[in-house]
Design a protein that fits this description.
The structure is a single chain. The protein has 302 residues and is mostly beta strands. The chain is 3% helix and 36% strand. It has one domain. The strands form three sheets. It has a 16-stranded parallel sheet that branches. Strands 3-5-7-10-14-18-22-25 form an eight-stranded parallel sheet. The longest helix has 10 residues. The chain is globular, with a radius of gyration of 18 Å.
Length: 302
């Protein structure tokens, strides 16, 4: 547990140490909501857990202070301990963040593990539950860099990242902004997004991917950016509204290079997500290249 019942006891140092130890992490910061300004990025060590849960109880905000990424997990980073000889496909750590708010994360200075302004994950398993992401940023340009809030790679056996009852943006001035994927971005990773909200996120790069001559590239997936080969994006009970892409997919950019990936939209609303460059005819706010057409069930796309 982080804290001894007072806000002052809930510090960046305590968060960094608790995440390094792993296990189930809760907070005891007093009865009122508290914001913890992170002085360092909290990093998961791969030989802890294997189950790691960070639970803010609905009262804790972790802030990157506009200067740094907030949370990092990478099974292929030797500094975080290699635990297998197949780091890109291992079942641990299994990280869940829940009942937390992540604000003002900034990964622009990280050139090795770019993207993921609030959270960057590679390997193991990852889940987001009842959490909020406000004003996080990553690199402003680049053809593949993205995930102003969250970027994920290499999930075990291709299993999906679950995002449940979570908010990315939510109001004017709260959106997340990066080259691609203002909310979330991945290469070769599946997502199941349930009862969540994406609004006011922006993809601001330009030149698309592959980048056009004379441009830095990027600008696709105002809310969600999915690229790679075999992966699935499934939305259920989710609203994606008022996001914007300078190039393609104001709501969703989905490109399965070998056309094996699938997109399913069920009981969801996608509305007013301008794509300033390109989108798939008949699917406003979506650019899609995958297996057949997107599957749309009991949903509104306009």
């Amino acid at each position: 547990m982080i804290g001894n019942g007072t806000p002052r006891s809930c510090t960046s140092t305590a968060v960094v140490a608790a995440v390094a130890r792993g296990g189930v992490i809760t907070f005891n910061c007093g009865p009122e909501p508290v914001t913890i300004v992170m002085k360092r990025t909290a990093k998961v060590f791969n030989d802890t857990g294997p189950r790691i849960v960070i639970d803010g109880g609905g009262k804790v905000t972790l802030s990157g202070d506009g200067a740094r990424r907030i949370l990092y997990m990478n099974t292929c980073d030797p500094n975080q301990v290699w635990t297998t000889d197949h780091c890109d496909n291992q079942d641990h750590p299994q990280l869940t963040v829940q009942n937390l708010t992540f604000v003002d994360g900034n990964s622009k200075a990280d050139k090795t593990y770019d993207g993921g302004g609030a959270i960057w994950v590679r390997g193991g398993r990852f889940k987001i539950v009842k959490s909020r992401f406000f004003r996080n940023v990553c690199a402003s340009t680049g053809p593949d860099v993205g995930g102003a809030a969250v970027r994920v790679f290499s999930q075990y056996m291709g299993k999906p990242v679950y995002i449940v009852k979570s908010t990315f943006g939510g109001a004017a001035g709260y959106g997340n902004v990066g080259s691609n994927g203002g909310g979330i971005s991945s290469i070769g990773v599946s997502y199941t997004v349930i009862n969540s909200l994406f609004t006011h996120n922006r993809a601001i790069g330009y030149g698309a991917n592959p980048k056009e001559p004379g441009t830095p590239g990027g600008g696709s997936g105002g809310a969600i950016y999915n690229d790679g080969n075999l992966f699935r994006l499934r939305l259920c009970g989710t609203k994606i509204q008022n996001n914007r892409a300078r190039e393609g997919g104001g709501a969703i950019f989905f490109v399965s290079n070998d056309r094996s990936g699938t997109l399913t939209i069920r009981k969801s609303v996608l509305r007013n997500n301008p794509s300033l460059g390109f989108e798939t005819p008949g699917y406003p706010g979506i650019f899609y290249l995958g297996n057949g057409d997107p599957v749309v069930i009991d949903s509104i796309i306009e």
